[in-house]
Amino acid sequence: MINRLFFTATIVLYACHVYAYDAQDKIVAKQGSMPVILTVPHDGGEALGWISARTQGAVVRDTGTQELAERTVDALEKKTGNRPYLVIAKFSRKFLDANRSEEEAMESVEALPAYRAYHDQIARFVAEISARFPDGALLIDVHGQSDDPGTIFRGTRGGLTVKTLLKKYGKEVLQGEYSITGVLQGKGYQVFPPVEASGLKEDRRFSGGYTVFTYGSQMSHGIDAIQLEFGKWARSKSGLAEDLADSILVFSQKYIPAFAK
Ligand SMILES: [Zn+2]
Fold it and tell me: Does the residue 17 lie in any domain?
């Protein structure tokens, strides 16, 4: 009898474990048609079954970054007829931090299916983009920060995650007039590092997290990857998505051969 009860309890637990939430339902994934992918890890608000909030690490939401990415995709489609690929985490950072390694991202194994759904999707899109556009592609990991509300920070681990671009074009590709942050600076945003900085040194708080490191071009199957941390004030500007779309367009026309054709 006790054995039977135990068996039933195990089955019930297992059922809860598997069906507590649908992992695919916790991400947004949209196919693109140009060699750019936008990822948004920190603007989700949804729970993951019954798991409790993490007790360590940052849990703050990057408010407005999901809308920013979606509007940027729409603006680029309007300008070019093509859409970047898009992957958005719908789950809250309180339960799972998608921009961390698997060990650091969660405190409950229940969060694992959502983590894997998010990263497997990015990996699939990166593989697809690499095959489709072998001459170059860019991943932008979209974040928000409030530590320095007036500034947009670039994070590439000091150029590491854009190894291919740097090798091809040198420093200007990352910090020149036609770079992503260079175009934004030209439009009046405060960016760091600015165009006039002599080296590629980035602010250590925002120098590039797990996603750009994992899918960056220093990895054998990676593509060039840049993390952008939009300050609170920049995120409150209604024209930001349009400006980001312009910066991606200017950059792509100059530095992504498939795009210029
Ligand atoms: Zn973030």
Answer: no
